[in-house]
Amino acid sequence: MAASPPVFYLIPGLGADERVLQFLHLRGEVHLLHWLAPETPDESLPHYAARLAASVPVEQACWLVGISFGGLLALEVAKLRPQAQVVLISSLANTRQLPPLLRLARATRLYRVVPPQLLKLAPRLAQWFFGAKNGKEYTLLHQIIGDTDPVFAQWAIARLLGWDSTGVGRAIRIHGTYDRLLPAGTAPVDYPIAGGGHFMIVSHAAQISSILNRLAAAEEPQKG
């Protein structure tokens, strides 16, 4: 009897949508977990993840692939879905991996007074942080930042900086060696992408697709 094709659930980054995933080519069943509007300005990440998890059958063996902020959600959703294996792309596996700049923002609560629209006003600064090349990458990044809901962005930034990662399971990490926004730090990276920046889900989509397809073909997803 032929094995069932792998099932992928993809969670894009903060404010992003399926546009950043269009260059992935995955062999299997692919679902996008769309962002939901926060129920309240203070909705917790676990509560939000429980609503997101409603789209993932409880007993389904699957791969939860989270990009950037979406990785935090993937880890929280996996707490509720025992058959899911998490893959983090350009993301954090726990709060100890927060870079110094974000630790400072958390300690000073600077993020409460700095509007998330700042990157819209400084597109070239955003380009530098994300590592997007001129041309199509920059155009796509500029469009995504322009379309980001500032209310959602404010909520997501607060959840990122206030995240309690206690109890999250193991995840496979794919991370770029030149990620300026969320550097990999000293924590182990299973699949380092040489020259990859924070926008490598676009710039290195072929390499990332190959890794995900190899993972899915090699083993059944399981938490461990």
Task: Give the structure's gist in a few sentences.
The chain has 224 residues and is α/β, with parallel strands linked by helices. It has helices at residues 45-52, 69-80, 100-108, 118-121, 123-130, 136-147, 150-161, 200-203, 205-218, and strands spanning 7-11, 29-32, 62-67, 84-89, 171-176, 191-193.
Order of helical and strand elements:
EEHEHEHHHHHEEHH
The amount of beta strand, in percent, is 5-15%
**Count of the separate structural domains:** 1
State the low-pLDDT regions, or none: none
- The strand line-up of the biggest sheet is 2-1-3-4-5-6
Q: What would you give as the CATH superfamily?
A: Alpha/Beta hydrolase fold, catalytic domain
Give the quaternary arrangement of the chains. single chain
CATH architecture annotation name: 3-Layer(aba) Sandwich
The geometry reads as globular
Helical content stands at 25-40%
- End-to-end Cα distance, whole Å, is 27 Å
Q: What is the CA-atom radius of gyration, in angstroms? A: 17 Å
> How many helices?
9
Mean pLDDT: 87
Biggest sheet overview? 6 strands, parallel
Number of beta strands:
6
State the name of the first-level CATH class: Alpha Beta
List keywords for this structure.
AB_hydrolase_fold; globular; AB hydrolase-1 domain-containing protein; AB_hydrolase_1; 224 residues; alpha/beta
